[in-house]
Membrane protein, TIGR04086 family
Amino acid sequence: MKQSSMDESARPIFRSPLLTGITVVLGTVLSGSLILAVLLRFSAVAEADLPYFTYGINGVALLSGGWLAGRRAGYKGWLYGGITGILYVLIILIIGFLAFDASMRVQPFLFTVCATGLSALGGIFGVSTRRP
């Protein structure tokens, strides 16, 4: 009988750093959006402040997804984090194009640059915090 060095319960669900990172980004955005919707409904938060909360949720999600992708990869965190950001932007652009018939403008390009930078920064931190 072959014994493994890791316990079955300690194995990661996703082995791919990119799949892990994008899952964390999407999960964080969805949960942050749900919390924001509850705040809008039951508190005095104004709808005029919505873009700031949205940028904050996306920023935290991209940093955490890039951090986990870089930590899972163990090397080249900037690359794995950056690719995670690009994948997230592609998903958002495809949803925007298919669901809302959004046309291409300058804003998605700026969002792509910022998202890639934030998630790459998260990937750098992720590699730095990895235990040897």
Q: What stands out?
A: The chain has a mean pLDDT of 85. Helices lie at 17-42, 50-73, 77-100, 106-128.
